[in-house]
């Protein structure tokens, strides 16, 4: 197992991608898109293809480049394909690889999101198949139920519609049969999901982010609607509204951290909104300092915005070691204490003697922030002012983000001043909740803000017993 000390404080669960094309290199298109979506999952990756007669799959632990080799791609013929990059919120990072399938080989499923409770799925399968499937995760249970109905001679569309009420949580699904690619989104649209059209009318693609579409030169068409099923086959793209009652609640952390800066959500640039978060942060409190330094790479846009608004010089005082991947590193105990130094390199000639503003996208446990402040001071900084481009994270996520328990969330246990003392900063400032919403330019009711507010739009089941909603 990877040391908890080394895992990132917040991690997105997965990326999904699907394509239906008139050509026979669908696997290569999906592989290219998964490269673009690598930031959403680095533990494992998989691709399933179909050619009208059979479904083939290649999947395993590691990054896209190491799993989907030239040899592997040559064994994945077909004009339809789905793909998945994984970051686990259930079980070992070295199991439960996707796409999921069984020996019946009727349908393969890949999932971005999380079902906080799978009781309905398990009860259904126990009642109808006699199998408890205790070691299955939510994605595997979803696949089993869809396939159960297909074995009853139902079409995949009918099977999904019958299964949909059992999916109690957040999901963007790509589903592959021998002749169709399907996209399905939960009734709240918590995880992002977009549709693109391939050049020269060669087909369609569906992606966790628009940057995945861009990577294969697919033209963005629109987002999949909450509760909508998209079916792509020889006759084109078809839409079915499965959920009759929908309330759109896109996870606001997609803007804060998860989505790639060149992606678009709600028609807005992720990069520009992050810059506006930085500008708003500068408006909320003035700090006398010499330089603004981002924690690379996710905090760079916010830091640029802060520098623009404040007039304080921006500089890269911290460099990221791009060759450190948590999937393959399990350092001995003496190295675990040096995890921040493995990932970040301080530029002493830039930091020495300066009053430094360090901006991070968020502060979760606080342990990384403490090491970060210590590193900058050791590099010779005269003052260290730590700023977060998002509000205090007080509640865990149950919809597909690997967050710590509430007891591990530092803002749920300490005041801002106590956190400042703990991390050792001269100043600690968070972007206000109101400032975050204002920076997006999108109505608050369009967002799931559970990490900040404790308001969960989808029932979190038994997890609610462990939450203090008064912090």
What would you say this structure looks like, in words?
By secondary structure, the protein is an alpha+beta fold. The protein folds into two domains: 11-248, Aminohydrolase, N-terminal nucleophile (Ntn) domain (Glutamine Phosphoribosylpyrophosphate, subunit 1, domain 1, 4-Layer Sandwich), CATH 3.60.20; 273-440, Rossmann fold. 30% of the residues lie in helices and 24% in strands. A seven-stranded antiparallel sheet has the order 4-3-5-2-10-9-11. A five-stranded antiparallel sheet has the order 6-7-8-12-13. Residues 1-8 and 326-337 have low confidence and may be disordered.
CATH A-level architecture of the largest domain: 4-Layer Sandwich
The percent range for strand residues is: 15-25%
CATH superfamily of the largest domain: Aminohydrolase, N-terminal nucleophile (Ntn) domain
* Percent helix: 25-40%
> Which CATH top level class of the largest domain fits?
Alpha Beta
Sheet with most strands: 7 strands, antiparallel
Number of domains: 2
């Amino acid at each position: 197992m990877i040391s908890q000390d080394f895992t990132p404080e917040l991690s997105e669960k997965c990326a999904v991608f699907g394509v239906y094309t008139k050509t026979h290199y669908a696997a290569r298109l999906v592989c290219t898109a998964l490269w673009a979506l690598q930031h959403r999952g680095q533990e494992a990756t998989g691709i399933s293809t179909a050619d009208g007669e059979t479904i083939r799959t290649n999947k395993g632990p590691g990054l896209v480049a190491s799993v989907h080799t030239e040899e592997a791609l040559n064994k994945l013929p077909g004009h339809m394909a789905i793909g998945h990059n994984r970051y686990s919120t259930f079980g070992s990072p070295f199991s439960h690889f996707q796409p999921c399938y069984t020996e019946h080989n009727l349908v393969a499923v890949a999932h971005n999101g999380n079902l906080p409770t799978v009781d309905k799925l398990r009860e259904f399968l126990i009642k109808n198949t006699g199998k408890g499937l205790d070691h299955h995760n939510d994605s595997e249970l979803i696949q089993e139920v869809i396939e159960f109905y297909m074995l009853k001679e139902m079409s995949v569309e009918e099977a999904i519609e019958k299964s949909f009420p059992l999916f109690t949580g957040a999901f963007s699904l790509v589903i592959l049969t021998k002749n169709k690619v399907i996209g399905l989104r939960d009734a709240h649209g918590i995880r992002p999901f977009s549709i693109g059209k391939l050049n020269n009318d060669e087909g369609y693609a569906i992606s966790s982010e628009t940057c995945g579409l861009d990577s294969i030169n697919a033209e963005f068409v629109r987002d999949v609607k909450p509760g909508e099923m998209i079916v792509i086959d020889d006759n084109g793209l078809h839409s079915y509204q499965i959920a009759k009652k929908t309330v759109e609640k896109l996870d606001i952390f997609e803007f804060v951290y998860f989505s790639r800066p060149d992606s678009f959500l709600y028609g807005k640039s992720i990069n520009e909104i992050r810059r506006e978060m930085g500008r708003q942060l500068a408006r909320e409190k003035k700090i006398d300092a010499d330089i603004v330094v981002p924690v690379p790479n996710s905090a760079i846009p916010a830091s640029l915005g802060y520098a623009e608004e404040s007039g304080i010089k921006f500089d890269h005082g911290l460099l990221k070691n791009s060759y450190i991947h948590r999937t393959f590193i399990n350092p001995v105990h003496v190295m675990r204490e040096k995890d921040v130094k493995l990932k970040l390199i301080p530029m002493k000639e830039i930091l020495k003697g300066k009053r430094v503003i360090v901006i991070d996208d968020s502060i979760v446990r606080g342990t990384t922030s403490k090491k970060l402040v210590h590193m900058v001071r050791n590099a010779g900084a005269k003052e260290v002012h730590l700023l977060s481009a998002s509000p205090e994270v007080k509640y865990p996520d149950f919809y597909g983000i690997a967050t710590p328990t509430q007891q591990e969330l530092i803002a749920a246990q300490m005041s801002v001043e106590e956190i400042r003392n703990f991390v050792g900063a001269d100043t600690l400032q968070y972007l206000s909740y109101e400032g975050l919403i204002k920076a997006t330019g999108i109505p608050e009711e369009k967002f799931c803000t559970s990490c900040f507010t404790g308001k969960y739009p989808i029932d979190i089941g038994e997890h609610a017993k462990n939450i203090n909603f008064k912090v």
